[in-house]
Automatic annotation (TrEMBL):
Family of the protein in this entry: Belongs to the PAP/fibrillin family.
Pfam family, one: PAP_fibrillin
Listed GO biological process terms: plastoquinone biosynthetic process
UniProt KW Plastid keyword: yes
Domain Plastid lipid-associated protein/fibrillin conserved: 75-257
Species name: Arabis alpina
Superkingdom of origin: Eukaryota
Subcellular location per the Swiss-Prot or TrEMBL entry: Plastid, Chloroplast
Ranges annotated as spanning the membrane: none
Protein name: Plastid lipid-associated protein/fibrillin conserved domain-containing protein
This protein's UniProt keywords: Plastid, Transit peptide
GO cellular component: a single term: chloroplast stroma
Signal peptide: none
C-alpha cells in the first residue's frame, strides 16, 4: 500500500475570501504609500463633506429662530402697520388669526427694544402719543350702552405725557351724529410715578366730558366708560423708540402707540 504525501496548498493558489472591511483596510494601507503632493485633498475633502452635511441639518425651530433674528426692526414695523389696517385699533375686536399675527409682531419688536430702561430716559417718553392698537375691546352690551353702534363714533385716542408734572392726560375723541358734534371728548387726568427701570404706576385723578350735550349722553354710563378707558394701575413700557411705543398694563393688555404732533 503506497502512501501519498499531502502538501498544504501554496499561498499563491489559495482562494481566501476578502470581506468589504478587509478591502477598505487594504485601500487605506495603500494610501499611506501615496504622495500627498500628487493629490493633497483626496482624504480631506471626504471628511469635510461629512462635517458639512451634518452641520447643515438643523431643526425647524432653529431655522425659524434664524429667520426671526435676520428680520429688521424697520421690516417688523412695516408688517405691523400693514396688519393693523382696517381693524379700528382693535377696539371692537379682531379675528383670532389677525390677533395672533399682531401679537407675534409685537413680540418680535419687544425682543429688539432699543430702550430697555425707558424710565431712565424720560425725554423719549414725554409728548403726545396716539393709540393705534389695543387688546381692550368694547363688545356686546357695553358697546350698545355707550351708543357706539349707532349715533356715537369713536375718534382718536390720545395720550399726553407731561414729564415735568408727572401727569398723563388721556383724551378720547367723539363724533355724535344728529347733534352736529364733531369734537366732543372724554378727558382723563392721572399722575404717574416710576416703579422700575421699565414701568410706572398710574393713579386716576379726575375726568371730564365736553360739551355738555355729550355729557348728557354718557352720564348714566360714566362708570362703564371709566371701567374701559381708565389707565389706572401698573404700566410697563416694553418697547420704545423715536416714534413707536409698546406697553402692557397689569392685566396683560397690550397697547401700541405712535408719536403724534396732536395735543
Amino acid at each position: 500500500m503506497s502512501s501519498k504525501l499531502i502538501h498544504p496548498p501554496s499561498m499563491a493558489t489559495s482562494q481566501i475570501p476578502i470581506s468589504r472591511t478587509t478591502k477598505m483596510l487594504l485601500s487605506f494601507t495603500n494610501l499611506k504609500t501615496m504622495s500627498f503632493r500628487d493629490n493633497p485633498f483626496r482624504l480631506r475633502s471626504m471628511f469635510i463633506g461629512k462635517v458639512t452635511e451634518q452641520s447643515s441639518a438643523s431643526s425647524p425651530n432653529q431655522q425659524q429662530q434664524q429667520q426671526d433674528d435676520d428680520i429688521t426692526v424697520t421690516q417688523i414695523k412695516q408688517d405691523l402697520y400693514e396688519a393693523l389696517k382696517g381693524i379700528n385699533r382693535g377696539i371692537f375686536g379682531v379675528k383670532s388669526e389677525k390677533k395672533t399675527e399682531i401679537e407675534e409682531l409685537v413680540n418680535l419688536l419687544e425682543c429688539r427694544n432699543p430702550t430697555p430702561e425707558p424710565t431712565r430716559e424720560l425725554d423719549k417718553i414725554g409728548g403726545c402719543w396716539k393709540l393705534i392698537y389695543s387688546t381692550i375691546t368694547v363688545l356686546g352690551s357695553k358697546r350698545t350702552k355707550l351708543g357706539l353702534r349707532s349715533f356715537v363714533s369713536l375718534g382718536d385716542l390720545l395720550q399726553q405725557i407731561d414729564i415735568a408734572q408727572g401727569k398723563t392726560v388721556h383724551v378720547l375723541k367723539f363724533d355724535v351724529r344728529g347733534l352736529n358734534l364733531h369734537d366732543g371728548e372724554f378727558r382723563i387726568v392721572a399722575s404717574f410715578k416710576i416703579t422700575s427701570k421699565s414701568s410706572v404706576e398710574i393713579t386716576y385723578e379726575s375726568s371730564t366730558i365736553v360739551p355738555e350735550q355729550l355729557m348728557n349722553i354718557f352720564r348714566k354710563n360714566m362708570n362703564l366708560l371709566l371701567g374701559i378707558f381708565n389707565p389706572e394701575g401698573l404700566f410697563e413700557i416694553s418697547y420704545l423708540d423715536e416714534d413707536l411705543q409698546v406697553g402692557r398694563d397689569g392685566k396683560g393688555n397690550v397697547f401700541v402707540l405712535e408719536r403724534t404732533e396732536k395735543s
